[in-house]
Design a protein that fits this description.
The complex is a heterodimer. Chain A is an all-alpha fold. Chain A has helices at 2-28, 30-68, 87-116, 126-140, 142-161, 173-176, 183-219, 225-245, 248-272, 275-297, 307-334, 340-372, 376-384, 389-395, 400-430, 439-460, 462-502. Chain A starts with a helix and ends in a 6-residue tail after the last helix. By secondary structure, chain B is mainly beta. Classes of the chains: A mainly alpha, B mainly beta. Chain A binds chain B through residues 73, 75, 77, 79-81, 84-85, 159-160, 163, 246, 248-249, 251-252, 329-330, 333-334, 336, 339, 417, 420-421, 424-425, 434-438, 501-502, 504-505, and chain B through 88-94, 104, 107, 109-112, 115-120, 164, 171, 180, 182, 215-217, 220-221.
Chain lengths: 508, 221
């Protein structure tokens, strides 16, 4: 027991120090940080691209394998456990956790940006519009959800079925045995925390930009870095109050409200927007996505500039991976009592359909605006002010002020709920997987994650956010690949136990 | 006007006996789903017919045929039952009001239950087996109308603490014998459980983990 307690402490201290060093570097040597992240960014295009592409494709294949494998009937938890949530609210929660701020931020900006600067072919054409939607589906489709499936399943399985602590290192028990409590396990946990802090900081940074943009649109507040920093500070104070006063239940109600509001916005746009175009876009792009999936998954440009791939595909893969311990922990917590087959359908298939539908509605409606009216200025405007994109888009729809206010509410609520939940997850991860992280550690992480988001915004906004997650997620991507093998080993032993029990009653 | 605010988890009196609300389905005429704490049987009613009771320290009641007294004079340890009477769940916790859980591990910050809930020490009351002297029995709202055995502990039947009562399709393995014997519950008639192979046992015997081991239910995958 002592060794486990020590483990909690050293993991917390080392990962905290690493992050602090990074923050100090960002505050006092901002130029240097920007320069180094630039080098990493360019290096990632040349050297790391294939690692991310390979890993992400592998996770998709692995998740589909789990869906059809003999392990599908294993239940997460005791055999008598039943799900805590009904299926509809479970799916809504998964969707909200996995996409959250990002889906609001990018759903208009990404298709339109691809439309102006497509990965191949000419911009501002019908082909470019189709390619834009195809790549948006690709970036938000099976790959992120496969990453979440792998990590969520590993966390849930080792936590509920093997009764191990809720830490990433627990997923390595079949390979490492009790060494998960030793230096190797600690290293895994530290790397996972490091990636998670950056994943969360990226989301918080994007969120702060989006909240500021919303206030700019609705209240005329200047859309500047200074305001973004104020948003971060206010949010930090709010969730620290919530941690200390037991308002967590209120946060849960808020997050349910955000989910309902986002579905409301989606339906409104489907109705007031170009409904037929949206439906056509959904069908057409689904076809393109499925038929070009392999090509897009492995696409690198060996004889040319890979700039586009790095700033989009690689960034997304890295961001999803950095974001994965957080989402994985959430998914594991709400999925107890599901079988593995249910889990994979619920985490891989259904949310993918959901995101594709969401992207068709927002992206399809936005592309209709810029393509059919030939409004190139609007497209450029959206591309240049990405964080304003969704509000610019709302301006062209009926009921635009209602949509803007709803959109702002959703983004603000997502921001605060994500920040709040993140402190809990970081607390768990850094205290050796305990389910009762102490408030002090949660508050420390709360301050740190906000500080990191602020530093990254100070150092150069979106580009630095993207680069930082690409760099921080790389070691964790490799950890996740090994985790898949460990998971299979664990599942195999579970099947053998089951079969051992059943054999005498069903001689086969 | 009386406003009925029935929430999941509340302890309520229904037909003079202590029940717990395990579900509220608004819009239905019979919207309140109850479980009788004494024998874990399920009942359904409406909000008018129930009356709320907030359990507190030194209350005693029968849960699943065994008497417990609520205490908070010490922190829970592994193996204790707790009643989460003051839930303050963290953002990822899934437990709710008045859940009764078995403690699996405990440390100075809180306990972790067998349902993987992390509960802090100020969120629960300890359920100490037996009725403590001076405890306040809360099984019946109006003690005078209790017809039968009343407040005596009817849990002395040797029941295990398992919450699993036998149900059809349960497959058990006999443990206190060297030869292999596995049988399925095929019928339950009052206090007799009929297993395949012509075995008849009482539920108490079947739930005795030294004699029978529960393997799985036929309907479980």
């Amino acid at each position: 027991m002592d060794s486990k307690n020590n483990k909690g402490h050293s993991v917390f201290i080392i990962s905290l120090l690493l992050t602090l060093i990074f923050i100090v570097w960002g505050v006092f040597f901002t130029d240097n940080l920007t320069k180094v992240t630039d080098i990493i960014y360019n290096g990632s295009i040349d050297y790391l691209g294939w690692v991310y592409l390979g890993a992400a494709l592998f996770f998709v294949i692995f998740s589909i394998y789990l869906l059809f494998s003999k392990y599908g009937d294993i239940r997460l938890g005791k055999k008598t456990d039943r799900p805590d949530f009904n299926t509809a609210s479970w799916l809504a929660m998964l969707f909200g956790a996995g996409m959250g701020i990002g889906i609001v931020y990018w759903s208009v900006a990404e298709p339109v940006t691809h439309y102006t600067t497509p990965p191949y072919g000419e911009g501002y054409t019908i082909d470019a519009a189709n390619t834009a939607m195809k790549y948006t589906f690709f970036h938000w489709g099976f790959d992120p959800w496969a990453i979440y499936t792998v990590i969520g399943l590993a966390l849930a399985f080792f936590q509920y079925n093997k009764r191990l602590p809720a830490a990433i290192s627990s997923a390595f028990h079949p390979i490492l045995g009790d060494r998960i409590y030793g230096p190797i396990g600690k290293t895994i946990d530290i790397l996972s925390i490091f990636a998670t802090v950056f994943g969360i900081a990226t989301s918080l940074g994007l969120g702060a930009m989006q909240v500021t943009a919303g206030m700019h649109e609705i209240f005329g507040v200047p859309n500047e870095l200074f305001v973004q920093l104020i948003v971060i500070v206010v949010a930090t104070v709010l969730f620290i109050i919530s941690i200390n006063t037991g308002l967590e239940k209120g946060i849960q109600y808020l997050s349910n409200a955000a989910m309902i509001l986002s579905f409301a916005i989606m339906l409104m746009i489907l109705i007031v927007g170009p409904t037929m175009t949206i439906i056509k876009v959904f069908f057409n792009t689904t076809g393109l996505y499925i038929s070009d999936f392999i090509h897009m998954s492995l696409r690198l440009k060996p004889f040319g500039e890979g700039e586009w791939i790095a700033s989009w595909t690689l960034f997304y893969w890295a961001w999803w991976i950095a974001w994965a311990p957080f989402v994985g922990m959430f998914i594991a917590r709400v999925s107890k009592g599901r079988t593995i087959r249910e889990f994979v359908i619920g985490v891989l298939i259904v949310p993918t359909l959901g995101t594709c539908l969401w992207m068709s509605i927002f992206g399809g409606a936005a592309l209709e605006l810029v393509q059919n009216t030939g409004n190139h200025d609007l497209a450029e405007n959206i591309t240049e002010n990405v964080s304003l994109a969704i509000f610019t888009f709302f301006d062209y729809l009926p009921l635009s002020s209602v949509l803007s206010i709803l959109g702002f509410a959703v983004v603000a609520i997502y921001y605060i709920t994500v920040a709040d939940t993140a402190t809990f997850v970081l607390g768990m991860l850094s205290e050796g997987g305990t389910l009762n992280p102490s408030n002090k550690i949660k508050m420390t992480w709360g301050v740190i994650q906000s500080a990191l988001a602020a530093v990254l915004l100070l150092a150069g906004g979106l580009n630095v956010l993207q680069t930082a997650s690409i760099a921080a997620a790389l070691p964790f991507a490799l950890i996740m690949v090994v985790m898949c093998f460990s998971l299979v080993k664990g599942l195999k032993s579970e099947v053998e136990v089951h079969r051992g029990n059943k054999r005498s009653s069903y001689p086969s | 006007m009386k406003l009925y605010q029935v929430r999941k988890g509340q302890f309520v009196y229904f037909n003079n006996e202590l029940h717990k609300v395990y579900g509220v389905k608004p819009m239905y005429k019979l919207s309140i789903h109850l479980i009788k704490l004494r024998d874990l049987s399920q009942h359904i009613t409406n909000a008018v017919s129930v009356e709320k009771y907030t359990p507190k320290e030194l209350d005693s009641f029968i849960f699943n045929h065994k008497a417990y007294t609520l205490r908070k004079d010490r922190n829970a340890e592994a193996g204790d039952y707790i009643l989460i009477n003051n839930p303050m769940p963290d953002s990822l916790d899934t437990y709710s009001l008045n859940e009764i859980d078995l403690v699996e591990t405990a440390d100075n910050k809180g306990v972790i239950t067998s349902n993987s809930h992390g509960v802090k020490h100020n969120e629960y009351l300890l359920m100490v087996p037996g009725r403590a002297a001076g405890s306040n029995p809360i099984d019946y709202k109006d003690k005078e109308y209790t017809e039968d055995e009343g407040l005596t502990d009817i849990g002395t039947l040797g029941m295990t603490s398992s919450e699993l009562l036998p149900s059809l399709g349960d497959i058990y393995k006999k443990k206190d014998t060297d030869s292999l014997l596995e049988a399925m519950v095929i019928a339950i008639k009052e206090q007799t459980v009929y297993l395949g192979g012509g075995i008849e046992v009482t539920p108490e015997e079947l739930l005795n983990t030294e004699k029978w081991e529960f393997l799985y239910n036929l309907l479980d995958k």
